[in-house]
Description:
Elements: H1 15-18, H2 36-44, H3 49-58, H4 64-69, H5 77-89, E1 93-97, E2 105-109, H6 111-114, H7 117-130, H8 135-164, H9 174-186
Antiparallel strand pairs: 1-2
Amino acid sequence: MDAPQAVPADGLPGSADRLSRPAGRLPVPAGKSGCPINLTMELLGDRWSLVVLRDVMFGGYRHYRELLGHSMEGIASNILAARLAKLVDAGLLTRHDDPSHRQKIEYRLTEAAIQLVPLIVDLGAWGARWLPTSPELSIRAELLAQGGPAMAERFMDELRAMHLEGRPQRPDGVLAELTRAYESAAGTAPRG
Length: 192
């Protein structure tokens, strides 16, 4: 008789071989269950966390005032402060002193947040397909979906360079392309 096979926590035989788990874990509470979907929803499932991450990723906003002033959804100042603190505590953002002003804090994405890009791309593509979105706010999601995993990987590499290594945004990179497409669709593109 064969020995019983160990079943991974997600309940899918063989998935332990397919999934590589990072050495570190985010510093978050255990949650109501060990289900990865539930834990992710407990961390990101509130109304504002993904919107704040979106604005840091795609808008390039790194300061509290920028995030508050450019919020298309009109996030309240106390909610933004609470979400930034939550995302820092969870290990998705880091806080850095801004050398240009001693009272300014710069927020940067961590590797864990950058690894959310494929999820955000899929959410954006789903929303553009099924919900009554506006063309200018859908264009980035559509371009990233059309670009597939290779474009998402290039975008993630750019985010790593900017947020983890402190390099400036590339003028010929994915983020610049997405920004130009948004500005063109919104009618705010700089006139040449």
